[in-house]
Known about the structure:
Number of helices: 13
Low-confidence stretches: 1-25
Oligomer: single chain
Strand content: 15-25%
Distance between the termini: 100 Å
Amino acid sequence: xxxxxxxxxxxxxSFCFDNAIFSKQIKPxxxxxxxxxxxxxxxxxxxxxxxxxxNADRIAREGVNFRSAYSNGPNCAPSRASLMSGLxxxxxxxxxxxxxxxxxxxxxxxxxxxxxxxxxxxxVTLAEALKAGGYKTATMGKWHLGKDPTTQxxxxxxxxxxxxxPSGGGYHSPYNYPNLxxxxxxxxxxxxxxxxxxxxxxxxxxxxxxxxxxxxxVHTPIQxxxxxxxxxxxxxxxxxxxxxxxxxxxxxxxxxxxxVLEALDRFNLAANTIVIFTSDNGGHGGVTSNAPLRGSKGMxxxxxxxxxxxxxWPEVVRPGTVCxxxxxxxxxxxxxxxxxxxxxxxxxxxxxxxxxxxxxNSKAKLFRPAIYWHFPAYxxxxxxxxxxxxxxxxxxxxMGDWKLxxxxxxxxxxxxxxxxxxxxxxxxxxxxxxxxxQLHSILKAWRLSTEAPVPKDKNxxxxxxxxxxxxxxx
Length: 474
């Protein structure tokens, strides 16, 4: 009798111990690599022949390439706020970088919506949710949503503040960031962030972790290592991507991705780690070419909001797959909650939808009505050809293959079929009246549901004569 009870106790303890180990093993680590101002076609797995990105390409090759992935905004801050909160921009009020009334007042026809620059603590961030689920959390690099990311779910912050671009001397040391100080000359910030990320992986290899590697690269200033720049100056480009310094910055960024992947391999963590590679908005029009996409950073054309995205998860994702289903950055929050079996925070409202069906089957459908953008702000043009602004206050919706953009200054509408016209050259607003009404109705209904402010008040400082004179076409 005693022997039988002893055997049962040993069996029970062994069963519990084995299951504890098993549970610990199946809870995946998460590495979210978020590149700044990195265009959809700035990466090899989306067709660039000039820029070299073997490590980013490896993630796509060993995972799934989302070819119709989008950021939630056409520039940095709103995209990051939506990524961390899981919410469309009208929910948190961060629509742009700094003030919304950019450019000369005499050229602005309406008064834009006032902008918020700090993600309020009432929003439960992705980091807070994962931390509550037992994850060690770290952010490495650009934060841009307030002074201190450790107040919003991150255990460790390296180099993150409210800054939108590298402070001080830029990408080359000496520099002084939170928990990252180097007074000596010559270290390259992008390299250092990769090293710090690898150190974090090693220090937390026994427990589940969430690493948010959010590079300042490849945001301006365009500063690269001299040797890499020389390499690209001597490289022949067959398309419009020809900027040697920018190419060198990309290679350094990709090298840091390689440092992370190597660390995962070295500590036998790759099989149980979700790696996500994506960007906060489209490429900078004064630096790179987004062709065949129209537009660039700061616009709601595809060049401003379509971004590269690849996800590797060896236990789930079939290597080398491609997905054309439209997805958007707010989808990552619910995806990672489901993937990590983390409870949704009780007071968190999420606008995105989990991508798990697509990770299991890249040909699956998400069956949501549409995805949306709201940008009630002005951004100056890069060059004279843009006119006074890259964009005036506007909003957009994509439903299936169709996309509609509405400009709030005059109510003008543009309608494109992205399947047949990826470059958005043919505005079908006049020939597809029923489709136009359908998408416009959906967009207006969404704005009502999110209480999105639409600026309508005329700007008393607007001067139409000065406007026409200053920006008259040559």
